[in-house]
Q: What sequence folds into this?
């Protein structure tokens, strides 16, 4: 899967802001159902949202404001990761400047299967991602996105459909993330810069705004050449993928 920013339609203009939607359906990677970049104008508030069939993951790109989930309102800042469970109302209010964020969700067809497994805390009980059940991870807890680096947002992976959300950075000349996954898909979003991606020997150009999906069994690497590349890496919970494989095929 390679969705190029240059091929995307014009953002949808709304009274409170705009949305840029990536067409993740009917791709060779099936687990990602929604990947949208949203913008909210200063002082505006989104409509209240309730998603009954999947978790929502919002990652703040820029701007500050407040996030309301149920009866709780908290401040949000750049690089914050907010996880909202199914059935919980949520909305965002921008402060004095516009707020821009990623709105990500995995396929709703998997939630009925996933809910039981996640309730039991699926995955390695001794893994380094178990930190209770936090639903907001502050971006300020992570180092700057620079140099040759990879930092993982700490969240309760055994209780979430999100396996990981990593912020990555590569300097010119580096080959990064040179690996393969046997059981799960992985997605990369190019935040800044340009370079090449190699998948099983096939090399293609990528640039800021591109979304790339890697299917199970596909060896992949990112090559930074003339300029630094900043990108995000994320995927559905790897222990869930074998359980929901058939549901994704039928969806």
A:
């Amino acid at each position: 899967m390679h969705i190029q920013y240059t091929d995307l339609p014009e953002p949808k203009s709304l009274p409170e802001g705009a949305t840029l939607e990536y067409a993740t359906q009917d791709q060779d990677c099936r687990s990602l159902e929604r990947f949208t970049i949203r913008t909210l104008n200063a002082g505006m508030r989104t409509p209240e949202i309730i998603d009954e069939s999947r978790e929502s993951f919002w990652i703040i790109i820029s701007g500050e404001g407040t996030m309301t989930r149920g009866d709780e309102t908290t401040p949000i800042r750049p690089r914050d990761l907010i996880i909202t469970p199914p059935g919980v109302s949520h909305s965002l209010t921008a402060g004095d400047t516009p707020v821009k964020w990623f709105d990500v969700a995995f396929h709703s067809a998997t939630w009925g299967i996933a809910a039981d497994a996640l309730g039991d805390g699926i995955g390695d009980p001794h893994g380094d991602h178990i930190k209770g059940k936090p639903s907001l991870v502050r971006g300020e807890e992570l180092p700057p996105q620079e140099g040759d680096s990879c930092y993982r947002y700490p969240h309760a992976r055994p209780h979430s459909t999100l396996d990981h959300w990593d912020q990555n950075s590569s300097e010119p000349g580096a080959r990064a993330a040179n690996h393969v996954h046997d059981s799960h898909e992985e997605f990369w979003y190019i935040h800044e810069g340009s370079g090449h991606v190699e998948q099983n020997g096939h090399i293609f150009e990528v640039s800021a705004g591109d979304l790339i999906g890697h299917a199970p069994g596909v060896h992949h690497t990112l090559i930074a050449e003339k300029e630094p590349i900043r990108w995000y890496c994320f995927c559905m919970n790897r222990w869930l993928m074998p359980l929901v494989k058939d549901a994704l095929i039928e969806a």
Summary: Helices lie at 111-119, 241-250.
